[in-house]
Specification:
Length: 124
Amino acid sequence: QVQLVESGGGLVQAGGSLRLSCAASGRTFSSPTMGWFRQAPGKEREFVAAIRWSGSRTYYADSVKGRFTISRDNAKNTVYLQMNSLKPEDTAVYYCAAKSPGTGWADKRMYDYWGQGTQVTVSS
């Protein structure tokens, strides 16, 4: 059984920064791609960023490109999301997810495992 546990959320003023962490445990498929998604109240869950197992390729939603950075430490089974220049519209519950290697890194339907989420609130 795979467990993904997010941490690092909180309340921050616009323009501030937060770093989210996602710790993975248990048995999973080989070389998983890890992703971050977010869901604001009344909205669909949307893709934020993803990273391949090797860390050689990263992908970002246009809305966060240049402000957010995804990274991973495979020795620690942890993936991070550094969020800078935060805006009120970034307010959401942020979820970590894992999928098998391949395409579809922006499609939430392709992810097999999900964390419980961590709340990020950006005040104006």
